[in-house]
Structure formats: structure tokens, C-alpha cells
Design a protein that fits this description.
The complex is a heterodimer. By secondary structure, chain A is an alpha/beta fold. Chain A contains five helices and five strands. In chain A, 37% of the residues lie in helices and 20% in strands. Chain A is globular. Chain B has a single domain, classed as Hypothetical Protein Ychn, Chain: A, CATH 3.40.1260. Helices cover 32% and strands 20% of the residues of chain B. The chains are: A alpha/beta, B alpha/beta. Chains A and B meet through helix 3 and helix 5 of A and helix 1 and strand 5 of B.
């Protein structure tokens, strides 16, 4: 089956990102395809490489990056939600006159059209949120 | 591009969290992609539609004006859960836009017909 995944919460306050990650990993292990993982609302906070959890805890951001690298996952962060919350890539830094970037490897910033496209293309869009 | 049935389920009050506002942004994009879009309001989500929001004191954009945008995007399917209204002492007359008030069973049926359900 072709899945798309929507993550609506950040890495720390809610379990949604953890569960989405476990779901993605399990689906891939079963041979399913993941068309895209889309990060919206506070979900965009899963994409900052500046996250520093305690050393004996899981690193949710790095874990997503690694999964993306291993499976060539398309992980998209909503641009409007990212701007509100200070998630910045090279292009956004220049466009908005900021002095830094913080987008973690494996993520890209794009529009909400990517979420709708994922809903159209996938057999199932699975939402992980509050 | 193929057309799918997208239903957006709004369950939260309008200003305590950002869900309602950012949900509306997705709704408009789905309509711009010419998908078959409907909105459903349940639980505290019915407060999003209430007439006469005054958000000046909380320095937040009010919702009421944005509902006008739905018509510009040809979004006319707005469903409201009758029980959620009743539980909050509201009727359809309290709402800022024309809606179809349905029972939970009827809303359940509509949900079953959808291709994509996004809950905010």
C-alpha cells in the first residue's frame, strides 16, 4: 500500500511524532511505500537540527533524518507553519532576511499543496496529532 | 489530476490553539487543487462558526471574516453536529455562515464516503 503521513505535533510535548515514526518504520519493514511525510502545526519542530535531548533519551529529529536517508523518504515541512515557528532553510533565510538556518538533514520546506498532493496520490493518508 | 473527497473535521475552539486557523489554510489549498472539499464541525469546533467574535483584546485575527473566503473557493459543504451545538446551547441561528446541521449518525455516514479525512 502507498501511505502518506501527516505529523501535527512537535517532538517533545506529544507522542504523535514518535508514533508516526514507529508507524513509518513498521510500514516500510512490511514492504509498503511511503509517498511523503508532511509536517504541519507544531510538527514542523521535528525538523530543527538544533534539538538537543538528554543523552540517554531518543533523538527524535536525528531519527527522522536517518530514516529518510535509509529509505529515500520525502519529508516536507510546511513553509507557512515553519515561518511562524522559526524553522529556516537557506532559501527562507535569504528571503526573510534571517541570519541562520536550522533545517535538519532529510527535510525540505515547501507548501501545503504538497500535503494535498500526498492525500491525492496515497492510498491512505494517516494523521498523527493531538 | 484526480479529484478526491477531502473532509476537514474541526473539533477545537477557535483561539485557544492554532489548529483552527491552520486548518483553514489547508482547506483553502485543497480547494485551490480543485478537490471535493467539505468541512465538518464537531465538539468545541462549533464555536469557530459562532457569530460576533470580538478578538481585539486578545490581539488575534478574528475568524468571522475568513468564512467569506470559503465561498470564493466554492466551498459550500459545511456540516455541523447537532448534538455539539445543543450541548453548548447554540442553534444554527447563532452561526455566521449557512450550514447543514446533521445528526452524529449522518455525519458518520458522510465520513465513511470520504477518501481523505483530516481532523484538526
Amino acid at each position: 500500500m502507498k501511505f502518506a503521513i501527516l505529523v501535527n505535533e512537535g517532538p517533545s510535548t506529544h507522542k504523535a511524532s514518535d508514533t508516526a515514526y514507529q508507524f513509518a518504520k513498521a510500514a516500510l519493514a512490511k514492504g509498503h511505500e511511503i509517498f511523503r511525510v508532511f509536517f504541519y502545526h507544531d510538527g514542523v519542530n521535528n525538523a530543527t537540527r538544533l534539538t538537543t535531548p538528554p543523552q540517554d533519551d531518543r533523538h527524535i529529529v536525528n531519527r527522522w533524518s536517518k530514516l529518510a536517508e535509509e529509505h529515500k523518504l520525502d519529508m516536507v515541512v510546511c513553509v507557512a507553519a515553519a515561518q511562524r515557528r522559526g524553522i529556516v532553510d537557506e532559501g527562507e533565510m535569504k528571503r526573510n532576511g534571517k541570519d541562520a538556518t536550522n533545517l535538519a538533514p532529510g527535510f525540505r520546506i515547501s507548501g501545503l499543496g504538497q500535503l494535498i498532493e500526498a492525500g491525492i496520490q496515497a492510498d491512505r493518508l494517516v494523521v498523527f496529532g493531538d | 489530476m484526480s479529484v478526491k473527497k477531502f473532509m476537514f473535521v474541526n473539533r477545537k475552539a477557535p483561539y485557544g490553539t492554532i489548529y483552527a486557523w491552520e486548518a483553514l489554510e489547508v482547506v483553502l489549498i485543497a480547494a485551490a487543487f480543485e478537490q471535493d472539499v467539505s468541512l465538518c464541525f464537531l465538539d468545541d469546533g462549533v464555536f469557530q462558526l459562532k457569530k460576533g467574535h470580538n478578538t481585539k483584546a486578545i490581539e488575534t485575527k478574528a475568524f468571522e471574516k475568513t468564512w467569506g473566503a470559503l465561498e470564493d473557493y466554492d466551498i459550500t459543504k459545511l456540516y455541523v453536529d447537532a448534538e455539539s451545538l445543543a450541548e453548548r446551547g447554540l442553534t444554527a441561528d447563532d452561526l455566521a455562515v449557512p450550514v447543514e446541521v446533521l445528526s452524529r449518525a449522518e455525519i458518520g455516514k458522510l465520513m465513511e464516503e470520504q477518501d481523505v479525512l483530516l481532523s484538526f
